[in-house]
Amino acid sequence: MDYMFFIFLSSGLFLGWSLGANDAANIFGTAVGTKMVRFKTAAIIASIFVILGAVISGSGASKTLMELGAVNTLAGAFMCAFAAAVTVYWMVKSSLPVSTSQAIVGAIIGWNIYSNNPTDYTILSQIISTWVLCPVLAGLIAILLYFATKYWLKHAKIHLLRLDSYTRFGLIATGAFGAYALGSNNIGNVMGVFIDANPLHDVHWRNFSLSSTQLLFLIGGIAISVGIFTRSYKVMRTIGKKIMVMTPITAWIVVVAQSIVLFLFASQGLEQFLLSEGLPTLPLVPVSSSQAIIGAVMGIGLAKGGHNMRWDILGKVSLGWVTTPIISAVICFISLFFLENVFNQIVYIAD
Questions:
Q1: What is the pLDDT of residues 285-309, one digit of tens each?
Q2: Helix residue ranges per DSSP H, the chain
Q3: Which of 36, 191, 226, 316 has CB 3.0 to 4.6 Å from 220, enough for a Cys bridge?
């Protein structure tokens, strides 16, 4: 195996680490913030299921990024991932839950501009529409779940100790589902730009096999797991406590709403089912788990009257969403120039 591949892949691993550090908060931040689940337990569960989601179901959403811009050299893929990773890491250092999806999209557009590769504006408009649809949909689901749960609790008359056990189990179960959805939906952000230039081979052992793309996704999933263990706790506090103080029940609702949204935008099986029934489908796009979780938190806050929400922090988060793709595109464009002209690397192959 060419050692240069792993050198170039390092930026994707950095991006995966940044995603784990940032986006694990969207899965277990509310559970850890309300002290219903220990951080170590959350990190182990999230790591296992994010890898499973990446390997088993990661191919659907990653295809959309390839259609937006087919980065056709390892050096170009390296710089796209590096620009996105630097942008995300900068935001993580500021304890802001930002969008890795927006960062990689911005980087790909930066590569398209530098290489004179046309950007598919139909695909881009689909992706941008999900940046609005994702938090809105999460907010609506959270509102429905909030009122349904409130009605059920009012009539179920469950003992407080039993309710506490149910809630703790629910947070762990939905966290596992959320981690799986995160891996399946967002692994395209981490490794999608490397697919066209991937030199890995399929692996076969008895009845077990991994395609070269799945092997690439496995490596990316491990990088995400490392980020979860080493850096995610600080951002979990931002999600879990600072935007809005939540009870364990509302924390569970938020995680369920976010997980459902990520699953909807990643499931090829659901897309095929809807098509077979003649129903409209959602685009298979890597969406922002950060946007989904913030949308769900806002939905709960609005359902409660909006009195306990920290609008100042939400304003800073929203500013991060707007600036993330722009910063990433600029970093990628400038870095590609230096990589090509100073380090003499081929960053694109003209058609």
A1: 888 887 888 888 889 888 888 666 6
A2: 3-23, 25-33, 39-57, 59-68, 74-93, 100-115, 121-156, 160-191, 212-237, 248-264, 268-276, 289-303, 311-341
A3: 191
